[in-house]
Amino acid sequence: MAVTIRPNPFTMVLFDADDIGRIVGEVAALVGVDRDMVVEVDEKTPLGRTFVTSLDPVTISVESGAFEDARRPRHHSETAVKDVVGRLLFRVKDRLDPAFGTPPDDAELSLPAQVAWDAYCVGRCARLGLPVQEQRRRYHFRNRHGFTDVADAMFERLWNGDGLTWAEIEAACSATEAARLAS
Amino acid sequence: MKRYLPVEELARDSRFFRVRMEDRMRDPRSVQRDDKDNRLTPDKPDASDRARALMHGIFVGEVQALEGAGRTCWDFDDIPFQLKLDMARQCWDEARHCEISVKLGDWMGTEVGEFSESTFLYEAACNPDPVLRLTGVNRALEGLAIDVFNTMREFGDRSGDPVLEFCEDWMLADEVTHVKMGSDWLRRLTENDPERRAKALEFQGVVDKLFSLGGFRGEKKVNPIQLARRFREMAGFSTDEIDEISDLAEQAMNEVQAQKAAAGAAYS
Questions:
Q1: CA atoms of B194 and B190, how far apart (whole Å)
Q2: What radius of gyration do chain A's Cα atoms show?
Q3: Distance CA B42, CA B160 (A)
Q4: CB A31 within 8 A of CB A58
Q5: I need a labelling partner for B107 at 20 to 30 A (CA). Which of A8, A114, A141, B79 fits?
Q6: Cβ within 8 Å, pair B47-A139
Q7: Left, alpha or beta for B214 (phi > 0: left; psi -120 to 50: alpha)?
Q8: How far apart are CA B161 and CA A81, in angstroms?
Q9: What percent of chain A is modeled with pLDDT above 70?
Q10: Residue numbers in A near B24 (CB within 8 A)
């Protein structure tokens, strides 16, 4: 499995492409994605959006803020790289698994669906020992799915889930939407 | 105890990471700021993470506001005792805000020190003239706090977060009082000294421009933090004064954009 980081070297930020490549390789091995990988970093923007743009080779596109150390501007953070890559590689793994179902392309995903899928992905990262922030993810989930008991229960289900399908993630979204409308 | 404590000597434990404002401003990346809607609203994909970062900024700002008000109690012999009492009351408010902010951080999933700390707020509280310090801190700094708290309160309201909305609303009420105290003391201390008052207001303008943070605060969609006109009026700002802050904010944004464009051009 080859990992390519673009650009290499970085010029606007002080990221170390070789170190990022090492981290990506380690996370991919943990998650179990054994495909060639390209990580494209848009260093022109400090924002933090992330996308999976291809499955073969696996191509992850991020804005530089996604890998940035929030305490040291323009430096990458191993924790941030692991957080982003772990989450996105679980999404890749799900897409490659026929039993998972067929979610829409990333660009077509609604925000609530993205956040619900992320909760499922990051929960599995936690069980692999990757650094995660459970309360941050719960807050993110509440912002998208409502500050309700139903939303909290759905978050727990997704976070602790294993072998879930896209249909189950959609069902969780429907349940929180109904609770939000009723409250 | 030492008077006029320099910013380098502020007490912080190992969780805190300090970053210089000039380093932030020299970051060549934000060149692409365009006319898109950058306001902090829940519909944005990164809304909750932006709110978390802002909440951490509020927390370190509260710590520095506490330190600043405390120093004003201590640094001067020649100010009215009643002013010291007001500053002591403000210390109590800021200490409570620090605790609320830490708990809000827990609620939102943020650790103390997860984001860097800029100390420009405390630096504005180091002016050796108590009148200038009051205008810099209580009118400019606390004025920015009104804008930030109102933005966060509205964010909590729109996202349906009852905890955030409630806490921000209460802290906002305190900030209005702090600004009002600054306005009242500025008037009383310079009643017979128009030159000193003019100097203080000029200093406030400098700090207001600085605290606009190159487009962070303003009245356009591109500004994440919106100027809270209604609450500023409640705190004693006239419409002309608020207009002036709005103009300064736009100037600050244009200047920083030009600096960043120049810095970015070096990389293209």
A1: 6
A2: 16
A3: 9
A4: no
A5: A114
A6: no
A7: left
A8: 29
A9: 100
A10: 73
Asked if the Cβ–Cβ distance from A45 to B53 is below 8 Å, we say no
| Identity of the residue in B17, B31, B162 whose CB atom sits nearest the CB atom of A71 | B17
Q: Given B19, B109, B161, which is nearest A147 (Cβ)?
A: B161
How far is A62 from A145, CA to CA, in rounded Å? 25
Q: Packing angle between helix B162-189 and helix B142-159, nearest 10 degrees?
A: 160
Cα(A119)–Cα(A139) distance, integer angstroms? 11
Residue B212, burial from CB neighbour count under 10 angstroms (0-12, 13-18, 19+): buried
From the CA of A144, how many Å to the nearest CA of chain B? 8
Chain B: residues touching A (Cβ < 8 Å):
17, 19, 23-24, 27-32, 42-43, 45-49, 52-53, 106-110, 113-116, 159-162, 264, 267
d(CA A151, CA A143): 10
Question: What are the tokens at A68?
Answer: 């940035």
Q: How confident is the model at residue B22 (pLDDT cuts 50, 70, 90)?
A: confident
* Tens of pLDDT, residues A6-23: 999 999 999 999 999 999
Q: Beta A50-55 vs A58-63: how paired, if at all?
A: antiparallel
How buried is B34 (Cβ within 10 angstroms: 0-12 exposed, 13-18 middle, 19+ buried)?
A: exposed
Residue of A nearest to B159 (CA): A143
DSSP B87-125: HHHHHHHHHHHHHHHHHHHHHHT--TTSS-B--HHHHHT
Q: Which of A40, A79, A81 is CA-nearest to residue A58? A: A40
Cα distance between residue B120 and residue B109, in whole Å: 25
Neighbour-count burial of A20, counting CB atoms closer than 10 A to its CB (0-12 exposed, 13-18 middle, 19+ buried): buried
Neighbours of A86 (CB within 10 A): 25
CB A55 within 8 A of CB A34: no
At residue B29, the pLDDT reads 82
Within 8 A of A108 by CB-CB distance, chain B residues are: none
Residue B21 clears pLDDT 90, i.e. is over it: no
3-state helix, strand, coil in chain A (%, to 5): 55, 15, 30
Q: Which residue in chain A has the smallest CA separation from B18?
A: A71
Q: What confidence tens digit (pLDDT) does each residue in A120-174 have?
A: 999 999 999 999 999 999 999 999 999 999 999 999 999 999 999 999 999 999 9
Q: pTM for this one?
A: 0.93
CA distance A15 to A13: 6
